[in-house]
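User: My collaborator sent over this chain with a note saying "see what the structure looks like." That's all I know about it. Can you take a look?
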Amino acid sequence: MLSILIPVFNYNVFSLVEKLHNQALELSIAFEIICLDDASTFFTNKNQQINQFQNCSFLVLQKNIGRSAIRNLLAQKSTYENLLFLDADTIPVHENFLSTYISQISNNEKVVYGGILYEITQPSKNKLLRWVYGTKREALNTFERNKSPYISFLTLNFLIKKNIFSKVNFNESIPNLRHEDTLFSYELMQQKVEVIHIENPVYHLGLEYNETFLRKSEEAVIGLKNLVDSNLIPSDYVKLSHYFLLIKKYGFQNIMALGFKTLRSLLLKQLFSKKPSLFLFDLYRLGYYCTLKSN
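Assistant: Without extra context I'll predict from the sequence alone. Here is the result:
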């Protein structure tokens, strides 16, 4: 019936698994929950307690294989045809989370994305940038997501058939620099697999510190550039790469790169403030993109 697949890296997933396990038992369905740890160094002892739950397993890899490969490996280890992928740092918002997904199971070739929310309480200043970005750019309702159903799809909370995943899975040849979900959604679009958006969200709990989120954002810019330069996605699929190509076309790349290097410290001061501007965050990423050497 349902395989719930959770990639783990340095995160305590016991509470997540316990909640999912309880919901699955109440539904009296055939299920399994597989947690695969990508060679973590923290929380493994606590997570080992997951093995005491019926139909649940927690396994630790000896070598880190990255975000794409671990998701593919989880699918390979799964028993059932319906795969529910959840990130480790999430928790279902509603008590009917699993039953809502089960109601979407059919023979149609589709992927179902439930959405994401962030807790209403504003975090401390040193984690504010991630929270503001998440609440404004990721925590979208179905109406907003359906305006761009593929690009607004995130891989932290989705249901997919195993036969579809065998055709469109995560590309393990790309660098482990994020945007694997962008490539995954683009390949779904190319294969004409419909992405259905529903209101079945999870809270994203793993807020990074501002400096960590900014570093990961820079890695994501490098990852996006790699996808475009490798012709794995078109430049206009993501707004950031589309705007970069326009800047490059009209000869403003060097000016933008110089402006970024000159104003970077001022931008960081604003982004790490009590009122971070997403407009300036976009400018920061675009300026950083302009500093990267073209292949």
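A starting point for your reply to your collaborator: Strands lie at 2-8, 31-37, 56-60, 82-86, 90-92, 110-113, 116-117, 157-161, 194-197, 202-204.
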